[in-house]
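User: I'm putting together notes for a lab meeting next week and I want to include a structural view of one of the chains we've been expressing. I don't have a solved structure, so I'd like a prediction I can at least talk through. The sequence is below, exactly as it appears in our construct file.
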Amino acid sequence: MSRGKKINQSKTIFQLSDQELTLLSVEQDARSKKFFISQFEKIPLAEGIISRGEILRPEEFIKILSGFAPFIQNKTIDVILPDELFTFFEKRISGLRDNKKKNKRAILSALYTSQESTLQTHVFEFDIDSRETKTGRLVFFFGIPHQIYTDLSYVFQKASFELGSIISETLSFRHLMPKEEKETLILVGQKSTRVADFSAQFLKKQQNFQISYNHLVSDIVQFPHFSQEDAEKILQEYGVLRAHLDEKVYRKLIRSLGPLLDYLSKRKITKSTTLQLVFTDRPLRGFVDVLFKTLGVPITEFHVLYQETFPFQEVLDIHKEDTYLYHAAIAQALRFWRE
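Assistant: Thanks for the context. Below is the predicted structure for the 339-residue chain, given as structure tokens.
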């Protein structure tokens, strides 16, 4: 290696579900300072290796992880887990300062001597509200069951990795949001749609709906003249556009979106709130238009590759449509450069 040669920085994310392991690495070019995706892969997991976040067959999982270790530069990795595995709660604590690191010991001491300690939760992240009251500041906690944390620590250590952050899919996007604004994210994923309300990057509330690309495909298949393959092609081409191939199919899809649209329309959305639609699975054409028609306020589709803070190279090895499947992992990887 020549003296003075600049080395690219990199960050690797593993995203886990009971059925699949996702690997993604993002690098920053040392010269141009632009980002690119250097590794990406999805591996199906055999039934029974993981169940609701708990690793039941660790040796098999370690073997899979160890196969990646020689090819990953930065061995401190982050893990994204499904939102439903996380516990979110808040507690008001007095005597806190503005420095988050100095507050950590006081916060965790107050937490584990309180009622929440019975939850057997490993707290991985917390945020402190800047507003001071007579009873202290509000602290927002995010954690996972101790057993899941113990399992993850063991398998990644055995595979020669160091475990960094463990985070939910929803929270992987929060560092990319404006720090001084209210933001509502509508995340449309593989199994569900989640509405998450943030204020100054603090997660205040979230609601889950059984609406997804897969659910809508199932709706179309209910019509006797459409096969599974037909349904996937129709949804990919038309989404929920008003100019649909079949009027009956369109009405069925809109009815399926009903619980989500009703929930959003009953909320008081002010001009100070920014609404963004985020796809973490295949995108649905026309979804932004449906939401705008229902809410009557501007809403934009967010994609991590097209924001100004972390510019990506124009030509990538990964196809644009595939980036949606790695959306949360890309967002979480960029947090490395934020910190």
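A couple of points you could mention at the meeting. The chain is about 30% helix and 30% strand. The first strand starts at residue 9 and ends at 16.

User: Perfect, that's what I needed.
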